[in-house]
Request: fold
Amino acid sequence: MVTELGWRTKLNPIFGKAMEYDGGEYGEGVLSKTSFLSSRNVALPYYDDHEPRAALEVTTTINLKDTISFIGTHLDHLNDEKDRVVQAKKINKVFSKNKHPTILAGDLNAEPNSTPINILEEIWTVSYDKNNMEYTYPSDNPTKKIDYVMFYPKSRWRVLETKIIQDTIASDHCAYLVVLELLDEK
Reply:
């Protein structure tokens, strides 16, 4: 599917498998206007009776001078947050060592102030206004925030715009559009 989307949009596609699913594979996909310098697919921990999850990281250049990393992930969806807690800890452990400014985005299946989000916020800065919550789920009548764009380090990014795009045909989640500006190193 990611290859097809890449072809249709004229963007560079990459897929990171989390598990076998329904005769195919389930995981993360990233599309980019620029070529990938590197990529890695990091398996996230999970308990035996739950689905495997992964975090797909790509590193690319923007504006011909800046290198950034982008991570797409989809954390466990079950009501018991024990998988999301260990997955958030693994994300912090692995990606806090990045040498380039980094964006983390995805369906984290956790609401603000939950344990997994609090763990991530030890490293990552959220893009939403905590005093003016923008809900992303379900797409027909959003009442929960479970989709996020976060960034690291805080000093290298500025949020220019956030927008919820409600479309019940495209997904059961609203799209969460975030425009970030990469700031010069100080």
User: Anything to note?
Assistant: Helices lie at 2-9, 82-95, 115-120. The chain has a mean pLDDT of 95. Residues 82-95 form the longest helix (14 residues). The first strand starts at residue 12 and ends at 21.
